[in-house]
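INFO  loader      accepted 1 record
INFO  loader      residues=253
INFO  predictor   begin
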Amino acid sequence: MKQLSPYLKARTVEELWEYHTCHMAEFGFDRLIYAYTCFQSAQSLTNPEDALVLTNYPSDYIEAYIGKGLFRDAPMMKWASRNVGAISWRHMWDDPDDEMPGPDRRELLALNRRFGITVGYTVSFPMAIKRSAAGIGLAARDGLTQADVDALWAEKGDELEIINQVAHLAITQLPATGQSRVLTPRQSEVLELVADGKSVRDIALLLGRKAATVDKHLRGARESLGVETTAQAVRKASVLNQIFIVEPGSQLT
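INFO  predictor   done
INFO  writer      dumping tokens
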């Protein structure tokens, strides 16, 4: 499929995401939301602050869906956290394991109806790393019914799953340069050295800086990433691909 070439040539998550949203719109899916985390809990869905979230949904929808935590009651989100593959949104509210919808579920349903996010498909990706999870919700454009989307998936579902899987794999390999939690070059450098097993004293000697200066950069990295420990910062930076970045045109060594 020649349309996969841009996924392989993209240099940042934002570049790839722009192409992917346009590509999916050609199939009739004009609103997407993707999430990837390495901090999935066995008891509950992840904190969105610990995930890479990409979307072109309206900002006021996202403010309610993520900001108010309604995503935790979203049936397709729950399905994606427990399963791998693709599922039609006609199953959105018929999970026999779910309890009767409570106030938050009713609020979520009303929100989805208000924004016309009621027809579509969800794809959940296989993950080889413990506590990792990733999935994408594909909302169909206005005018399409779920029957229309199900018929499209019956014809092109395999192709759509492959395209979204390629997008997911590419995203996990690219730096998220447009995220609010972007590290400075020096913060990335000191986290890389920590990941390599270096102590603060080692890093100070390697960089020709004082230990207090290294501590300052590590503290700034923790604050930027919203974590408490340097170990958490290293892990979160790795999820966002903010460390060990290969610059365009550079050679791997």
